[in-house]
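Dear support,

I submitted the protein below through the web form. The confirmation email said the job was done, but the results page showed an empty box. After a refresh the structure appeared. I'm attaching both so you can tell me whether what I see now is the final result or a partial one.
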Amino acid sequence: MSTPSQRLIESNGIRLNIAEQGKGPPVILCHGFPESWYSWRHQIAALAEAGFHAVAPDMRGYGKSDRPEAIDQYTIFHLIGDLVGLLDALEAPTAVVVGHDWGAQIAWQAARLRPDRFRAVASLSVPLRPRGSARPTSTMPQTADAQFYQLYFQQPGVAEAELERDPGVTILSMLYGASGQGAAAFRAAAARGEVTRVPGMVPRAEGMLRGSGTPPTLPPWLSKADIDFYAGEFRRTGFRGPLNYYRNVDRNWELMAAFAGVAVKVPALFVAGDHDMVMAAPPGMDQHLANLRQFVPTLRDVQILPGCGHWTQQERPSEVSAAIIDFIRGLPG
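What the results page shows now:
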């Protein structure tokens, strides 16, 4: 198979860079933070070989796509609109949407609000959660000494200064730290009493990366070339656009109030790793997963990958690709 081709398209008033490969029914792949289209490199090839048109955009604010400066240009409505505009540019009436991390949240909401355009949804790492009764930032944990990482991201310029100091170190620390290998190493160190830092919490005096650790050797799923690619992108673009997603969590909560009762009506798949911080950290997540069909009555399957961390499609590329392809092939029509 050839490598993906890339091009810029007009969508929702901005330009999006897309990586695409294959011919057939379209499958839109939405990445998360801090990634790019490149996080789907394995799935793009697998989907193309399976007879699908795989399309992975650099999401708004990332890579070669446009990066609006204003924070309010990154609401959930903008992000869903980008995907609808992408389908229009492809002249595709409908598509299957697949998302990971922030891309998973966008994919869920796209499937909820625009089932006429997104005929099925596959989510990696982040399950659909019902709208809470309070602003999200008001419920995020913080102490005098530390705060939840999403609170750390709220003040413009603060996280940018740390993450942009050395994008290579930032990417390595984040990718390893939230991986299955990183999670296992953290738990082992905590059991030995060598670390006391709570996952997800940022010490106010230290920042996010200090003490996060780097691996003695890279995990088998991550190469130096992978790190260099991501680091090169963020060295060129900075982190402001990606961080603006987090700065809209309260605004999104307000905007989505009118749609709180809307259920996902298209077929759905959920895949995650049992070492994923998203799965392990929030209390009650096991119960939420058990009740996920209450919010997603069309849920076809839940797959939990043993030993896998947060970077689901990169850590377990073959298993994730197979799960997505099997899911799509099982759709009606």
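Response: this is the final, complete result; the empty box was a page-load delay. The first strand starts at residue 5 and ends at 11.
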